[in-house]
Amino acid sequence: MQRLLSLMRKANNDYHLIEDGDKIAIGISGGKDSIALLAVLNAYRRFSPEKFDIVAINIDMGFEETDRDEVARLKAYAEEIGVPLIIEKTDIAKIIFEERKEESPCSLCSKMRRGALNTVAIKNGCNKIALGHHSDDIIETFFLSFIYEGRLSTFMPKSYMDRTGITLIRPLIYVEEKQIIAFQNKYSLPIVHNPCPQDKHTKRQDMKELIDKIDKDFGHSKVRMLRAIFHPERNNLFDKSLK
Questions:
Q1: Cβ–Cβ under 8 Å, residues 47 and 77
Q2: What pTM, to 2 d.p., does this model score?
Q3: What are the DSSP calls for 115-133, one per residue?
Q4: What is the tens place of the pLDDT at every residue in 128-148?
Q5: Among residues 61, 18, 35, which one has the least CA distance to residue 180?
């Protein structure tokens, strides 16, 4: 816990993610990353110089296969640590897989889930949404953009959405996935497994496996990739003004 708290504090100090008076909605997918974010952000507010409130929001996509016992354990955990948990039921799964029969559903699913999360957050007076993206996600997103979109891009630690007035923050950007796995195992955090048929069969999973292979073959490559992303002053790319 102390290591993750330290890395969260560093991210907050570097990018001013949290301010006095914030009400932060934590997007809870049910996976290890968002549950770890819930646990660490709740612990962080006890000594944070900024005074803020948090609420956990889970978007129930409507999969019949969702394990209700796992959901019950999540509810019990949120109650135990004193964080309000809102479970918003939707028909996203039905719309994507039954009505539209999407062959590549991930992009649309992400937009619909994010839209539902934004709506619930605004309804409950939140001005920020915290997502559980970690440092491995940063590299994977960069590779996805580079390979599939021809862009050198990844998500930002903090971004303001004009259309909703909500600010997205990612307090775990300095945390490695393996640290989250160890944290989840140590504290037996309640996981709600994803019943989506596309889980583990996505382009992101392909990127994860590719990056892990590069890191294994060349040693500490992830660290150097993150340095390149966190320090854009090191970039030496084509200057369009010279053309």
A1: no
A2: 0.92
A3: HHHHHHHHHTT-SEEE---
A4: 999 999 999 999 999 999 999
A5: 35
